[in-house]
Amino acid sequence: MRRYENRVVLITGSGQGLGRAMARRFAAEGALLALCDVNEAAVKETAAECDGARPSVVDVADARQVGEWIEETLSAFGRVDVLVNNAGVIRDNRVERMSDDEWNIVIDVSLRGMFHCVRAVFPQMKQQGYGRILSFSSMSGRGNFGQANYAAAKAGVVGMARTIALEGAPHGVTSNAIAPGLIDTPMLASMNAAARAKLAGRVPMRRIGDPADIAEAAAYLCSEAAGYVTGVVLDVDGGISIGSALR
Ligand SMILES: NC(=O)c1ccc[n+]([C@@H]2O[C@H](COP(=O)([O-])OP(=O)(O)OC[C@H]3O[C@@H](n4cnc5c(N)ncnc54)[C@H](O)[C@@H]3O)[C@@H](O)[C@H]2O)c1
Questions:
Q1: Handedness of CA 90, 35, 214, 165 (dihedral sign)
Q2: Alpha helix (H) ranges present in 86-225?
Q3: Distance CA 123, CA 19 (A)
Q4: What's the CATH class of domain 8-236?
Q5: Whole-prediction pTM value?
Q6: Confidence of residue 246 (pLDDT cuts 50, 70, 90)
């Protein structure tokens, strides 16, 4: 399928993991890509795999950097059809040991970063009468031991995504979220090994997800065909969020 021919797709945090997998997928369907990450070498590597992609070094927590990135993207491509708010970090700790820095960076990247990017693209999407915004929540948004910062950020992503869905609806702009379960990326590899193994044992589909599983869902939610789907949080998690551990 070539659903993204002539569509301009922005993906934050696309230097590795899910962002890179989505970049590959959108590129394979003909998208013009604006990719950003704090890691310059990594985002350039992703861009090198995707025809015509523009890599940029942007910290989404910094509103000025985001504003400049969107301006440069508009001068290069003339429009913005899809924004994927994918950048995120984890800094796990029990709440009583969590430092201000651990709290702040997680909120700043996932939540403040999403706000900065949405605010910057919204006027253009409204003017076009077309836009697709996809943001990354997590199964941890329902709460997860040792992740007070991350759970708060990822629950916040859902609230913001649904609000943007209401504000965008009259203008042809949809806003949805994906809540991944355990997906095989460098972020998952950085998790405490015991916690990871315990969680992996609870996945009803009995496997950890592949980044391509997420890219597939993203390619649908951001497509023109998904124009009547908005305010949705799609769990892509092999069934782990269903709730019962009984088999
Ligand atoms: N992998 C999983 O199992 C999983 C599960 C649930 C949710 N998620 C979410 O999916 C998204 C992608 O996760 P991943 O596993 O690919 O993570 P990852 O750590 O492998 O990749 C994240 C990318 O974001 C970049 N980044 C970090 N801070 C940034 C900033 N301030 N500005 C711009 N880029 C920044 C990193 O450099 C990295 O390239 C995240 O929002 C994450 O919270 C992942």
A1: positive
A2: 100-107, 113-128, 148-168, 186-189, 193-200, 211-221
A3: 24
A4: alpha beta
A5: 0.98
A6: low
Domain spans of the chain? 8-236
The answer to whether 140 and 147 have CB atoms below 8 angstroms apart is yes
* CA–CA gap between residue 188 and residue 208 (Å, rounded): 10
**CA-based diameter of the chain, in Å?**
55
CA 102 to ligand 1 centroid distance, Å = 15
The answer to whether the CB of 61 is under 6 A from ligand 1 is yes
| pLDDT over 80 (residue 153) | yes
How far does residue 166's CA lie from ligand 1's centre (Å)?
26
Give the nearest ligand 1 atom to 154 CA: 43
One-letter amino acid identity for 102?
A: E
150 belongs to the catalytic site: yes
Using alpha carbons, list the distances in angstroms from residue 46 to 25, 26, 153, 200: 12, 12, 26, 28
